[in-house]
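During the first year of the project, the team set up a workflow for recording each protein of interest as an amino acid sequence followed immediately by a discrete structure-token representation. This format lets reviewers and collaborators read both layers of information side by side without switching files. As required by the reporting guidelines, we include two representative entries from the current panel. The first entry is reproduced here exactly as it appears in our internal archive.
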Amino acid sequence: MLKTILSISGRRGLFKLVSHGKNMLIVESLEDGKKVPAYAKDKVISLGDIAIYTVGAEVPLHEVLTKIKDKENGAKASISTSAKPDELRAYLAEVLPDFDRERVYPSDIKKLISWYNILIEAGITDFSQEDEKEVPADDEKEE
């Protein structure tokens, strides 16, 4: 599901990929449902391609979002995005204890919490990476 959810640099919120056009994408805001174009010049990133730095390796965003959902019992985050940096770090440490405190900034944690809340409000609660489930099933059918 997260592969079709996009963050567009310079635009607030998250967007769902609706369609492709010539040199652009048609996306729908998860907050207000408005459809808008995203052009080739816009920096568009799929949430499925994002990971959080940890001391050992990077953890895919879908795993972190799932841990937040488990901590919050499927409700919105219990911490505000306007919380102090130390409070934000403490919150993320509860969810992802080994996150890299030097490379994950408070602004990153604010964005993570904001994205989580937007997804929950939009009714998107399955953060699993569907690609991993579908690939083996396709392989089995071909054999």
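The second entry, processed by the same pipeline in the following quarter, appears below.
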Amino acid sequence: MKQIIVAIDGFSSCGKSTMAKQLAHEVGYIYVDTGAMYRAVSLFCYRNGWMNDESMDIYSIEKNIENIQLEFRINKNGTAEIFLNGENVEKEIRTLEISNGASRVSTIGAVRKELVRQQQKMGINKGIVMDGRDIGTVVFPKAELKIFLTATPEIRAQRRMDELLAKGEKVIYKDVLANVKERDERDQNRKESPLLQAEDAVVIDNSELTIEQQQILLRKLFDQRIGIA
């Protein structure tokens, strides 16, 4: 079967990872969560004291970014987990603090350059589904299938809050909504690889779609691209 690259971009908390994981599982592709990569960098920066909630030590981050090695390993349940310099940090990177830090470190050119290099290396043989903010515009501008996923900020905030509450975090809706809007502003207006819709991307607004409806639409688009529909 023809191997392609599927690039899924969009706003935070749109469900890009859920969409990408399910498609990769259905078609036997490798799933790459680039958001997890930036979260891992954020975690590394917090641990080393290069970033806190108010500031970043950009010099130290730029100086050490090439020493950060990221990889995905499949666990016993068949899902990919991210490893930071050999350590499984899948759980540690899923907090609101680390997620917000990921959006901040992603504005640093040296960070984006290094992670794009690692991402492109992961996709050299195709057969991957990758989601993020700049996959179809910067990482794989020639991807055979590009999706741009969106939903209203209010719906995305509710989804994000439900996810955090399920993990035992104490959050309130207004704070999560403010965080979602702040990330949107930062992602769309940063100098390095801002969040943009690729000209040839298919836009999916999943504000009112169920996960099942979304996946049926995605699978139809995938089958068309590989020539079996």
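For the second entry, the following points were noted during internal review. Residues 74 and 80 are 4 Å apart (CA to CA). The longest helix spans residues 173-189. Both points are flagged for discussion at the upcoming steering committee meeting.
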